TrEMBL record, chain A:
This is Glycerol dehydrogenase. The lineage of its organism: Bacteria, Pseudomonadati, Pseudomonadota, Alphaproteobacteria, Acetobacterales. The chain crosses the membrane at residues 12-31, 43-61, 68-86, 92-113. Keywords: Membrane, Transmembrane, Transmembrane helix. It comes from Komagataeibacter intermedius AF2.
UniProtKB/TrEMBL annotation, chain B:
Gene3D superfamilies: Quinoprotein alcohol dehydrogenase-like superfamily. InterPro entries: PQQ_b-propeller_rpt, PQQ_mDH, PQQ_rpt_dom, Quinoprotein_ADH-like_sf. One of its GO terms (molecular function) is quinone binding. Residues 102-708 form the Pyrrolo-quinoline quinone repeat domain. CDD domains: PQQ_mGDH. The keyword Coiled coil does not apply. Residues 1-29 form the signal peptide. This is Glucose dehydrogenase. Its cofactor is pyrroloquinoline quinone. GO terms for cellular component: membrane. It comes from Komagataeibacter intermedius AF2. SUPFAM superfamilies: Quinoprotein alcohol dehydrogenase-like (SSF50998). Residues 30-87, 440-461 are annotated as: Disordered. Keywords: Oxidoreductase, Signal. The lineage of its organism: Bacteria, Pseudomonadati, Pseudomonadota, Alphaproteobacteria, Acetobacterales.
Length: 128, 735
């Protein structure tokens, strides 16, 4: 049995695509975030990059907890952004705009992930 | 660790940025391309000693005689001249400009850029429409590397609008129709273009010896890219035979070894008490022993040599003897100067000694006068006073602005003849022009010292004009880094952390890049400021664009192919003036780039990148200040966003104030000309120009109608479209 979800229909494929994009966005955050932390800069990118990458992998495995982890990371990002730049529009733009767009996508994919998990648990129960 | 990104990571980063940023409201500034600093692992060279290291590229001896063709007009040299005095001058039109006129680059003898015209006001400016476009005929030919940025401000005297093209043709235009009355062909060669083909303005001169009504009573003077002074008659555009050699003076005389494009003039030479004062731009970053920055005086009537101020021959004011030349590598001045007939002085904003980023080989005389205002006696060429704005400058903080003169009223009611000196640092100095003493307080504050380059110590303090509002922001923090998405923002945060940065005057470094903030584009650059004497309002537009620089060992510089312009192997583009430079004859080369994300082309610091500020000079308080320029023509990957969002873009070109209560300024990289209500700072009008408006506008009245003119010549370094269009506006409801 593959660890990754078997997409069904357009919604399933869109969810998998979103998961792959989130992994691709998370990896550079981890890689460069590690160097930034090493150079004495913000730890946010390393921490958030790890969370986002794991979230993407879990989503690709069809686990709703991956989507929830991403949404949690996004909420954490908002708090961190307010802490760093307050209510400054130009300052908030790079920090929250893209992640929030993706979060909307993730929220829309949650039902797909739930169905995938249900299908898997049912499948696993039948096997058992 | 991780100093070299693999191509895979680069692709990943770029791709991720595109994905994350496609939907972004990415309104960003456009900044110029340049080579990137090499980063860590750039081997340190031990010496720092003044002995020139061995270079892979040979170059002519600085003492070699000039090759044929460097003296563009083939003007015979004649014997060296001894200092003499100028023919007495009659009053010039810029002393008391006619109401309708704009007779000089900064309009008047004080360079106020203020016009008493009031036909156009904030309430009727909706009717301001294009009246005509005039084409100068100078733009890059197919196949030529674009080095154009005309930067021209026309002048208007009586019935004539006079200007020069980027390649120094001079022309007279009908002020109402834009019809060309005459066109003088300077026949300049492409090779003579230094960093930029520019001609900021011509000078109107009324002769004291040729009677009214005769040829060359009224003359148009210019200084050229190929180092000539040319005077022509204002009525027919034919050369003044009584001036120099058939109307021309060879300014390469006494300059020693050079090649075309190494030495050039782009600013209008002031005429003070009958003496034309010349300065010249020497291409930055080429070699330590580049041609001289000498300042010279010439008789405005005859073109005969009067005197020279040559930094390393301080008390010799004559021309160099046969076989000798003016002292090389001395600070050059390329800004527009301003004269003072009453005090008999010319105020020279100086730049840096040659090899801008390495100071160990400079003489004490050079260190006293670089990046300073120097007041020179126009009778003798002797400096009267010096005020330095940066000590031992290694940041290319040469002064680009023209000083503006004013009468400063002290709290006790007494009046001081003063001079306002804007700088790239955003520090604006106000000086007593009789003595050079600060009128508003200047503090010497500790600066990072001794620096990181062996044998090249930085000055322990630098001057701050604490009495004037600063045209700049606080030092950069990691949280000021910007981008479209967290990924490119993170990349900029990394660039920030990888560099040396301890605030303003962070010393140059070899082991890794350093952050230069403010950058060398200013603060205030050559656009200068405008000043309304009646209200005491000063208008300044300025930049907020840090740079990312690194010194490289000679070996590395050779590997990068950096070589000076007079090297036989030199190819155009192989080390430009404002980018990477060989700095031959010093231990290091220099790599300079904007502090940007080179993948998206967006600046790493958060906006705004350009600002406009109104200051009340009576109280030295900011009246209003806001970002200047919209995001319409800029964006990531060089794509226009078409958003009418005022983000504040980098800008080059000055403002104009009118008695109608308006400010006109173009300058921004959104290719627009803007008008602001001077009292509120509100933008009341704008228009999209056919090219970049990197020039200072001007305004005049003719036959009862007020016009506003702007050269939309663009700017190669600002990456704005280049045209040969002079665009002129007038109200469409006035006849």
């Amino acid at each position: 049995m593959s660890a990754f979800m078997k997409p069904h229909g357009a919604a399933g494929w869109a969810t998998l695509l979103l998961a792959v994009i989130i992994i691709l966005l998370g990896l550079p955050l981890v890689y460069m975030g590690a160097e930034l932390a090493f150079l004495g800069g913000s730890l946010y990118y390393l921490v958030c990059g790890l969370a986002v990458t794991v979230a993407g992998v879990l989503m690709a495995m069809g686990r709703p907890v991956g989507g929830l982890l991403y949404l949690g990371a996004c909420a954490f990002t908002w708090l961190w952004a307010f802490w760093e730049v307050g209510l400054d529009g130009w300052g908030l733009l790079p920090r929250v705009f893209g992640p929030t767009l993706l979060a909307i996508g993730v929220a829309l994919c949650l039902p797909v992930l739930r169905r995938a998990e249900q299908a898997r648990t049912t499948h696993v129960r039948e096997v058992a | 660790m991780m100093s070299n990104h693999t191509p895979i990571l680069r692709t990943l980063l770029l791709g991720a940025t595109i994905i994350a940023g496609t939907a972004g409201v990415s309104a960003l500034a456009q900044v110029p391309p340049a080579d990137q600093p090499p980063g860590n692992g750039n081997a340190t060279v031990s010496p720092g000693t003044p002995t020139p290291p061995q270079d892979a590229f040979s170059a002519p001896s600085p003492n070699a005689p000039q090759a044929p063709g460097v003296n563009a007009a083939n003007i015979p040299d004649g014997p060296p001249a001894e200092p003499s005095e100028a023919t007495p001058m009659v009053e010039q039109v810029t002393a008391n400009p006619a109401h309708d006129d704009w007779p000089g680059y900064g309009r008047d003898d004080r360079a106020t850029r203020f016009s008493p015209l009031d036909q156009i006001t904030p309430s009727n400016i909706g009717h301001l429409k294009r009246a005509f476009i005039y084409h100068t005929g100078s733009k890059p030919a197919p196949g030529q590397v674009n080095k154009w940025a005309a930067e021209t401000t026309p002048i208007k005297v009586g019935d004539g609008l006079y200007m020069c093209s980027a390649m120094n043709d001079m022309m007279r235009i009908d002020p109402a129709t834009g019809k060309e009355v005459w066109h003088f062909h300077a026949n300049e060669k492409y090779d003579s273009i230094p960093y930029t083909a520019a001609c900021k303005a011509v000078v109107y001169y009324t002769s004291s010896t040729v009677p009214e009504g005769e040829h060359c009573h009224h003359r148009i003077l210019e200084a050229t890219l190929d180092e000539r002074l040319i005077e022509v008659d204002s009525e027919d555009g034919k050369v003044c035979e009584g001036f120099g050699w058939h109307g021309m003076v060879n300014l390469m005389k006494g300059m020693g070894e050079s090649v075309p494009g190494f030495v050039a003039e782009t600013a209008p030479p002031p005429i003070v008490n009958g003496a034309i004062i010349t300065n010249q731009e020497i291409l930055d970053g080429q070699r330590r022993w580049a041609p001289s920055g000498v300042i010279r005086g010439y008789d405005a009537e005859t073109g005969r040599f009067l005197w020279a101020w040559d930094v390393n021959r301080p008390h010799e004011h004559g021309e160099p003897k046969e076989g000798e030349h003016y002292s090389r590598g001395t600070p050059n001045s390329w800004a527009a100067m301003i004269g003072d007939n009453a005090l008999g002085l010319v105020y020279v904003p100086t730049g840096n000694s040659a090899a801008d980023y390495y100071s160990a080989m400079r003489s004490p005389e050079e260190n006293k006068v670089s990046s300073a205002v120097v007041a020179i006696d126009v009778k003798t060429g002797e400096p009267r006073w010096v005020f330095q704005t940066v000590h031992k400058d290694v940041w290319d903080y040469d002064i680009g602005s023209q000083p503006t003169l004013m009468d400063f009223t002290r709290p006790d009611g007494s009046s001081v003849p003063a001079l306002i000196m804007p700088t790239k640092r955003g520090q604006t100095f106000v000086l007593d022009r009789r003595t050079g003493e600060p009128v508003l307080p200047v503090e010497e504050r500790p600066a990072p010292s001794p620096g990181m380059v062996p044998g090249d110590t930085r000055a322990p303090t630098q001057p701050w004009s604490v009495g004037m509002p600063r045209l700049g922001f606080a030092p950069l923090k990691e949280t000021d880094m910007w981008g479209m998405s967290p990924i490119d923002q993170l990349y900029c945060r990394l660039k920030y952390r990888r560099a040396h940065y301890v605030g303003e005057f962070t010393p140059p470094s070899i082991d890794k890049p350093w952050l230069e903030y403010p950058g060398y584009n200013g603060g205030s650059d050559w656009g200068s400021v405008a000043y309304d004497e009646k209200t005491g309002i000063l208008i300044a537009n300025w930049n907020n664009t840090p740079m990312y620089d690194q010194l490289v060992s000679r070996k590395k510089a050779d590997k990068l192919g950096l070589m000076p312009v007079d090297d036989p192997n030199y190819k155009p583009g192989g080390g430009g003036a404002e980018g990477a430079g060989a700095m031959a004859e010093t231990p290091y080369g220099i790599v300079v780039s904007p502090f940007w994300d080179e993948y998206t082309g967006m600046m790493c610091n958060r906006p705004p990148y350009g600002m406009i500020t109104a200051i009340d000079m009576h109280t030295q308080k900011v009246l209003w200040q806001h970002p200047l320029g919209s995001a319409r023509a800029n964006g990531p990957f060089g794509l226009p966003t078409h958003l009418p969002l005022t983000i504040g873009t980098p800008n080059n070109g000055g403002p104009v104030i009118t008695a109608g209560g308006l400010i006109f300024v173009a300058a921004t990289t959104d290719n627009m000309i803007h008008a602001f209500d001077i009292h509120t700072g509100r933008e009341v009008w704008n228009d999209v120009l056919p090219g970049g408006g990197q020039a200072t506008p001007m305004t005049y009245e003719y036959k009862g109608k007020q016009y506003v003119a702007i050269m939309a010549g663009g700017h190669h370094f600002m990456m704005t479209p280049v045209t040969d269009d002079l665009v002129v506006y007038a109200l469409d409801n006035v006849n």
